[in-house]
Write a structure and sequence with these properties.
This protein is an all-alpha fold and 163 residues long. The chain has 8 helices and no strands. Helix 2 crosses helix 6, helix 2 packs parallel to helix 7 and helix 3 packs across helix 6. The N terminus is likely disordered.
Length: 163
C-alpha cells in the first residue's frame, strides 16, 4: 500500500507516522484507530460528521450493512478494508470521498462502544510501537490529526470494478 498526504500541514510528520502505522499488522492498525477514537474522539466528533464533503447518509448506509453482519464478519470486513480486498462493501467504500470514509470509521468506533459492532477485547493491549504512535498522533495539532486520519483511510477499500 502507498500512502500520500493530502495536506502540506502534515508533511513534516505524517509520512513517517503513516509508514509506521502501515508497518503494524492489520489488527494493531484497527486497534490503534479505536484507541485514537477513545483518546481524541471528542475533538474529532464535530469535524467528521459536520464536514461539508461528508455524505452522512452514504456512510450510515454502509455502517448499517456492516452492523447487520455477524461479529466475525464485521471484524473481517474491517480487515478487508485495510488490506484493500475486493468485496462488494470494500468497493462501495473505495468510491467514497476521504471525508466520508473518515466518517464511516468514526461510526464504526461509535458502534463498537454501543455494542453494534464487534468490540475490542477487554484485555487488549497495544504493542509498544502502536502505543508510541498513539502518543505521537495525540500530540499533533487538531488539523494535522484530521488530515492524518484522512490520509490513513483514503487508500483503504477497493477501487476494482471486477468481482
Amino acid at each position: 500500500m502507498t500512502y500520500t498526504t493530502s495536506n502540506e500541514a502534515t508533511s513534516n510528520v505524517a509520512p513517517a507516522l503513516l509508514q509506521s502505522w502501515q508497518n503494524l499488522d492489520v489488527d494493531q492498525q484497527l486497534a490503534l484507530f479505536y484507541f485514537i477514537y477513545k483518546e481524541i474522539g471528542r475533538s474529532v466528533t464535530p469535524a467528521a460528521p459536520g464536514a461539508s464533503a461528508a455524505s452522512p447518509e452514504i456512510a450510515e448506509g454502509i455502517f448499517n450493512q456492516i452492523k447487520d453482519l455477524s461479529q466475525e464478519e464485521q471484524l473481517q470486513l474491517q480487515r478487508d478494508l485495510i488490506l484493500q480486498k475486493n468485496t462488494p462493501i470494500t468497493r462501495e467504500y473505495g468510491s467514497l470521498s476521504n471525508t466520508t470514509k473518515l466518517l464511516l470509521w468514526y461510526r464504526l468506533a461509535q458502534g463498537m462502544d454501543s455494542g453494534e459492532i464487534i468490540p475490542m477485547p477487554d484485555n487488549y493491549k497495544l504493542s509498544g510501537e502502536a502505543q508510541q504512535l498513539l502518543s505521537q498522533i495525540c500530540a499533533l495539532e487538531f488539523q494535522q490529526q484530521i488530515t492524518f486520519f484522512r490520509d490513513f483511510v483514503a487508500p483503504m477499500g477497493s477501487s476494482s470494478t471486477e468481482d
